[in-house]
Specification:
With 128 residues, this protein is mainly α. α1 packs antiparallel against α2.
Length: 128
């Protein structure tokens, strides 16, 4: 075995989840997916509710079946993890900008009139 911690909840570490517990977790995942797909909230900030339910329902059910050891899924966040968060957040933005700049040299893009009108709006007009 390695010295690194393994993925929890499958080999009796930190605790054993029985078949009934796994079934409850799988049903919670199906319910969470149904909430994500079927809850028709399209306007911000209500559109965040299905995504929060998709994440929250399985975590709440895991808390119910695993008790206080449910947090073994999560490790401590240190400087390395924060650096990885920043890196993986910045890479798609940088990649998109580079591809956009390269394509702008090859292809002629049409102007987007919506972006021009959004740029001229005040904050109050944007929030209304």
């Amino acid at each position: 075995m390695t010295d690194r911690p393994d993925f929890p909840f499958y080999a009796g570490r930190p605790m054993r989840l029985g078949g009934r517990d796994w079934l409850i977790l799988m049903v919670s995942l199906a319910i969470a997916f149904a909430a994500l797909v079927l809850v028709p909230l399209n306007s911000f900030p209500f559109s965040l509710i299905p995504a929060l339910l998709f994440v929250g329902i399985p975590l709440i059910v895991l808390r119910m079946v695993a008790g206080p050891r449910w947090t073994s899924l999560f490790r401590r966040v240190g400087p390395l993890q924060i650096g990885q968060m920043v890196l993986f957040g910045a890479l798609p933005l940088e990649g998109s900008m580079i591809i956009g700049m390269l394509l702008s040299q090859i292809v002629t893009f049409s102007h987007n009139p919506i972006s021009m009108s959004l740029g001229a709006m005040t904050t109050a007009e944007l929030l209304a």
